[in-house]
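Re: beginner question about structure tokens

> Can someone show what the tokenized structure looks like for a real chain? I only ever see the sequence side.

Sure, here's an example I had lying around. Input first:
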Amino acid sequence: MTQSADQLPNGRRPWWARLIPGLFFLSLAILNTYPLAAAPGSFIGEHGDSYFSVWRLAWIAHQLWQRPGQLFNGNIFYPEKATLAYSDAILLPAIVVSPLHWLGVDPIVAYNLVLIAAFTLNGVAAYSLVRYLTGSMAAGLLGGAIFAFSPHRFDHFDHLEMQFAFWIPWAVLAWHKAIGRDEVRGYLRVAALVSAQVLSCIYYGVFLITWLGVLAAFNFWRTPSRIVRAGALMLVPALLVLAVYSIPYLQNRQKVGDRRSRDVQVYSATFSDFLSAPSTNQLYGWSYSLGSPERHLFPGLVTVGLLVVGLWPPISRTVVLHLVGLIVALELTFGFNAHVYKLLYDWVLPFRGLRVPARAYVLVLLGVAVIAGVGFSRLIASLRSVTRAPRVWGAAIPAIVLAMVVAEYFTMPRLRDVDRDVPIWYSWLEQQDDAVIFEWPVTVPWRLYEMVDLSYMARSTIHWRPMLNGYSGFYPDSYLRLLVEMRSFPDTRSLKVLRDRGATILVLHEYPETRVRYVRAIERLMRDPLVEPIAQDRDGRGRVAFFRLLPKPKPASSETAQPQDRR
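And the corresponding structure tokens:
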């Protein structure tokens, strides 16, 4: 590699150069998530999954402090067990940020800070990889911007686990260093980083293990013994971590099954998806209709141009290697619309729990970032060789190109105001040791997309009492049956169902669209001798009523049922 313009004669970077990448990507993260950084406690992503991540982070922090042995037994879907494992637990990031919750930081503030930090780290990690491969700071900044802020990343703005991708570039960087030195320590470093990715996002972990396995085989195809050695050192420890981490997921698999093949087909990418950007992208949002949810994969015109430059002959070994990786990533992204993914789904167990093959696009972005970074460094070198003012152009051209990429990627995510008007009775519930909560209204199994229970889960971070409600990537059959049985709530039959499931506290919400049903439900419960009113209050949407569901009295025994002699 040639000496970069930001290096001193002794090969070291000046102190200011070390700060530039972090500040650059932090600035982009703040800009593209505005106004979260200015008011992290006032706004949250529009999609309900943002609240789900608030709950996940807070639950792990709570259980680590209270009952670490019961970590996966979330307080949702009572009385089901291991409910945290109905979706990605984002275990490692949640553990890392748990001190924020222990120090009393608001869960929504903690979530937004983690989101901004994840965008920043994605950029820094990809910068480290591309700069190492090209020797160019400008190329590194470009690669980091592509990997962290391309339009597709904002298709998953409210999917927090999809933002924990920074382990991937760091693992690939460690892999490049390891294959150059062929040291055991280097391969084990790769294994540690891949394991960290598994514990941060299972989707990305499974895809990365697959990607690295293919790339290792391609890189060492002339020496099969090195394939076995490198593959074993890099992948076996990560596979063991995945196997242990998967235990609660495998236990749940018996109750919730695998992802249906028709769902996997729906979320398999098509060619038209690569022409589509999320609607929140300010420059290309008009192309949203060309793609489907989670399949808006347009990388940007400037990026495509630099990708072509990077692939222009002569092609270095590094570019060839990442071109193969790009092809592998595209094959995974196309899912059932390609050739290999169907075999993986049929024969490799972890793939049967993945619904969205298009999420492998993160590895496409990795390949694009590297190759476009190579193209960018080529472009800068060519301009320096032909211009008479290399110092001026050496700074101006990279700045212009980076500005164009930033403009292409500029996004205004949809946010909503955080409802802070929460009745004090939720704090009261924390003191009720026997409280098992059911909140109403609920939806029906064929309209789960309404995600009604997410607001209830967010409020459960106040009291952490078990609740019959819940939302996750999978749903247990018991919960789906409950939704059907609650269609007649609060009649005698539905109340019996709730008692049989252990519910002791009812919380009813008045929404504008359910006002009539709310009034009728309150009138019915007030007449029921086995329902005890606790309180009525208000929140930001309407009235909220709290009731205690009393146990049904046991029938009197034959002895006590005899009439008393009053003589």
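Each token stands for a local structural state, so reading them left to right follows the chain. The beta strands are 43-45, 415-417, 437-440, 505-509, 531-538, 543-549.
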